[in-house]
Specification:
The protein is an alpha/beta fold. It is built from 13 helices and 16 strands. It has a domain of about 300 residues: TIM Barrel (Alpha-Beta Barrel), CATH 3.20.20.140.
Length: about 450
């Protein structure tokens, strides 16, 4: 009965906000507007048909529903990167975690978008933290996505058929929105994911040198396959170390059209990844990069973006011995495009993304750069610039009205729009609170008396 009530509660949350974009004309007026790239005092944001119509200082258009934001802050919805939202409910319960994969013949071709759950209890909680979009990534050794606890070899396949076992690749990431409804997928297969450094060495025989050699050989095989598909189909091509599905999935990586999210921490490993990207013509995104500040100029010169957690400052191992709270500030000052992550895979703690941005500000990152790092920058990094993460005409109407500075922990997201649709300001936790707090109907199961 309790489980049924919780499921019904989740359905009620979905019913409060239809996935269809709103047609109503709405104007949010009088607030301090953070567009993602600038600040407008006493601004007006007009939205209609799921999109931002205009951002400026004019009056609300005639006939619009008006939301008074005087004394408040209006900001774009935040974007959670390196996240497991919608892909994992409880990481320790295998049946509820669709972010990890151990199949031998499916590695690079593993597509997390097929395991997304629009009714996940984690989504409303993240939404209340101002998160309106997320980049969902497969779990992998050395990464924070999915809050995994696996050892570096736990993603190994069974070694059948001559395929790589374990594989260097964890699978492909997807972009989702967090609006209530039955379809949260925005775009699948936006990036490939691979561990490097110590974790990558762990799936390549224990040596960093072996990993880089194996990676280069894999790309050689992918390019060979791409040029000789007909021969492969006839069985006239030499044996390859990946399945056909994985070879197909890696063609966009090999030709530079799909970015490769590389989990890497040590400065020396970052240098080698930059060298590899240059030699192979691969487009990379650094994930982690706790020692990135040591080679910030090299990262900037390569034009490589970084996904980072700015509060990572403890040397948990020899890869992160030089981690420091000023990492975000140093990378930004060098001209690196950064995106700030949440904590523990950005699932249950995705809402802490804004806290991490605030911490980065307290350690030298300019305030406007911190806002960019959780709004416009993730959109740029994943090829969605101008489509979300910014308050500008034509962008998705992901708009949040805050009671105060969104980087201050005590500020509350009072009104949340995703794709122009206002979202219910509640979550499973609030439903449970309301159910039991006042002893109302259903507070106790029928079998109990009070």
């Amino acid at each position: 009965m309790r489980l049924r009530n919780l499921i019904l509660g989740a359905a009620s949350l979905a019913a409060l906000a239809s996935p269809a974009f709103a047609q109503d004309l709405t104007a949010i007026t009088g607030g301090r507007v953070l567009t993602g790239t600038s600040v407008i005092e006493n601004g007006t944001v007009v939205i209609q048909n799921g999109r931002v119509v205009s951002v400026g200082t004019g009056a609300a258009p005639s006939g619009a529903r008006v939301i008074d934001a005087r004394g408040k802050v209006v900001a774009p919805g935040f974007v959670a990167v390196d996240s497991g939202l919608g892909g994992s409910e409880i990481s320790s319960v295998n049946g509820s975690d669709d972010l990890s994969n151990g199949a031998n013949s499916i590695s690079a071709s593993f597509d997390v978008s097929y395991g997304l759950d629009p009714w996940s209890f984690t989504l409303p909680v993240a939404r209340l933290g101002g998160i309106t979009r997320a980049i969902v990534v497969p779990s992998h050794p050395g990464g924070s996505g999915g809050h995994n606890h696996q050892d570096d070899s736990d993603f190994a396949g069974v070694g059948e058929g001559g395929y790589q076992s374990p594989s260097l690749f964890a699978g492909q990431a997807a972009i989702i929105h967090l609006a209530a409804g039955n379809d949260i997928l925005v775009k699948p297969r936006v990036a490939m994911v691979a561990p490097f450094g110590e974790a990558g060495a762990g799936v390549s025989g224990g040596s960093r040198g072996a990993e880089f050699t194996q990676f280069k050989e894999t790309l050689t095989e992918v390019r060979l396959y791409a040029r000789n598909r007909a021969a492969y189909d006839r069985g006239d091509l030499r044996d390859l170390s990946l399945s056909r599905a994985d070879l197909e999935a890696l063609i966009p990586v090999a030709n530079g059209s799909m970015p490769l999210i590389v989990t890497v921490h040590r400065a020396a490993d970052i240098q080698q990844v930059l060298r590899l990207a240059r030699e192979e013509g691969v487009k990379v995104i650094l994930d982690g990069a706790e020692e990135g500040w040591m080679v910030a100029d090299q990262i900037a010169a390569a034009g490589v973006p970084v996904l980072l957690n700015p509060i990572s400052n403890l040397p948990g191992n020899l890869e992160t011995r030089a981690s420091r709270m000023q990492n975000a500030a140093a990378l930004d000052a060098a001209g690196v495009l950064i995106a700030i992550k949440g904590n523990e895979g950005s699932i249950h703690r995705a809402r802490e993304t804004r806290y991490n941005a605030g911490n980065a500000v307290s350690h030298g990152l300019p305030y406007d750069a911190a806002i960019e790092a959780i709004t416009v920058n993730p959109a740029k990094i994943f090829g969605m610039a101008g489509q979300f993460g910014e308050l500008r005409a034509g962008a998705a109407a992901d708009v949040v009205v805050w009671s105060g500075d969104p980087l201050e922990p005590l500020s509350i997201a009072e009104t949340i729009f995703i794709g122009g649709q206002e979202q219910a300001p509640t979550s499973r936790q609030f439903l449970l609170r309301d159910r039991y707090r006042d002893g109302g109907e259903g507070a106790m199961p029928p079998a109990y008396s009070r």
